[in-house]
Write a structure and sequence with these properties.
Blueprint lengths: L3 E12 L2 E12 L3 E5 L6 H8 L7 E6 L2 E2 L5 H6 L2 E4 L11 H7 L7 H14 L1 H5 L10 H13 L5 E5 L7 H16 L4 E5 L2 H7 L2 E6 L2 E7 H6 L1 H8 L3
Parallel strand pairs: 3-8, 3-9, 6-7, 7-8
Antiparallel strand pairs: 1-2, 1-4, 4-5, 9-10
Helix pairs in contact: 3-6
Bound molecules: adenosine-5'-triphosphate (ATP).
Pfam family, one: ABC_tran
Family: Belongs to the ABC transporter superfamily.
GO biological process, one term: L-amino acid transport
Length: about 240
Amino acid sequence: MMEKVLQVKNLKVAYGPIKALKGIDLEVRQGETVAIIGANGAGKSTLLKTISGLLKPAEGTIEFRGQPLTSMAPHHIVSKGLIHVPEGRAVLGRMTVEDNLLMGAYCRKDEKEIQEDLEKVLALFPILKERFKFQAGNLSGGQQQMLAIGRGMMARPQIMMLDEPSLGLAPIVIKEIFEIIKNLRDKGITVLLVEQNAKQALKVADRGYVLETGRVVLSDSGANLLRSEEVTRAYLGER
Ligand code: ATP
């Protein structure tokens, strides 16, 4: 068994009176792609934001390679290599593609390796090379998502957390994004993927967790969840 990168235990998070997470347990091991699926409002984004330190849990623990993260500031969590690619991508529209990518490496000082990683990211996303000096705001939705993923890679992530990378994209572009996620896995990058697009997510995932109103109701290998009657009925119906 590979080393545990992330371990979440009994995680509870509330927005005032609204209990968004009601005791979540999950783990991610080195090199795995783990998918969190569930309907709108299940608590998927809340989970990622809490791991990133943007929200403070009411209860429970989060450990990164055996070290507690729960009371750490977000910038400190980023510097440990937990990289969050947020829903809506959050590229800086008035900055160039180049600057957005370099922003991903802001915690690093190894100039030569940063340049090498930039070359690798541009090889993976040729369109970003073409648009290197363009303002990021002028890219299409799919290209902005690639930029957000590329920016995450520039941080040399220990674990990459992707929040709904397929949201709002055309079907053909969604296919491309999932190819990229498969590619991250092949490169040995550990990925925690949040998706409403359950079928595609489970296809690329080693394991998955199904979230319903703040609780994990099922967890299994991606392949078994894809075959499971419960998942099929609730999430794969029309997709
Ligand atoms: P989505 O796909 O819509 O992002 P999700 O599974 O990521 O869904 P969350 O966004 O984590 O779900 O929301 C979980 C619950 O917390 C929902 O009931 C939501 O209404 C509530 N919630 C989320 N953000 C806030 C907030 N800032 N203030 C109050 N309630 C919130």
